[in-house]
């Protein structure tokens, strides 16, 4: 359980294991439930199109303490493929992305920031971890650049 009191559902771990072991799932998006009590799977996909994945993050909504729909954060896992320098072939790294937009309201930002480690601890086998607060942080080139350098 996270410092925030948010727990991780078993479905989160199962979806991650399916991605890690089966390799048919390309990405997973996780969200904190509307009652702010648990992290759950929002969506999984076998589509390798990064632009569709990025759009889902950019359009993520949460509810604030009053129940209003506001811009929200998300956690995601993406199996990032990239070419090695010098034409040495392709590699892939399972990458954890914490998407907490700077212009989201304070409560969702705080809850996503303080609950991240609980999910990361539950997902064994992450190769890379990216904190993203601005749309530029989740541009494909930015993600590949950071992942291929081992950050």
From TrEMBL:
GO terms for molecular function: actin binding. PROSITE patterns: ADF_H. It comes from Hortaea werneckii EXF-2000. It is found in: Nucleus matrix. InterPro entries: ADF-H, ADF-H/Gelsolin-like_dom_sf, ADF/Cofilin. CDD domains: ADF_cofilin_like. This is Cofilin. GO terms for biological process: actin filament depolymerization. Residues 5-148 form the ADF-H domain. Belongs to the actin-binding proteins ADF family. Residues 130-151 are annotated as: Disordered. It holds the Pfam family Cofilin_ADF. It comes from the Eukaryota. GO terms for cellular component: actin cytoskeleton; nuclear matrix. Keywords: Actin-binding.
């Amino acid at each position: 359980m996270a410092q925030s009191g948010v727990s991780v559902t078993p479905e989160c771990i199962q979806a991650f294991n399916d991605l890690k072991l089966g390799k048919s799932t390309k990405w997973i998006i996780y969200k904190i439930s509307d009652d702010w009590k648990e992290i759950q799977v929002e969506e999984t996909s076998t589509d390798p199109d990064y632009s569709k994945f990025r759009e889902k993050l950019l359009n993520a909504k949460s509810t604030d303490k009053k129940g209003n729909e506001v811009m929200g954060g998300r956690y995601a896992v993406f199996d990032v493929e990239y070419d090695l320098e010098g034409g040495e072939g392709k590699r892939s790294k399972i990458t954890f992305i914490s998407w907490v937009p700077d212009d989201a309201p304070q409560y969702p930002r705080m809850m996503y920031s303080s609950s991240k480690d609980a999910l990361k601890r539950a997902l064994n086998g992450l190769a890379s971890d990216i904190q993203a607060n601005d749309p530029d942080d989740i541009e494909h080139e930015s993600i590949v650049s950071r992942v291929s350098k081992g950050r």
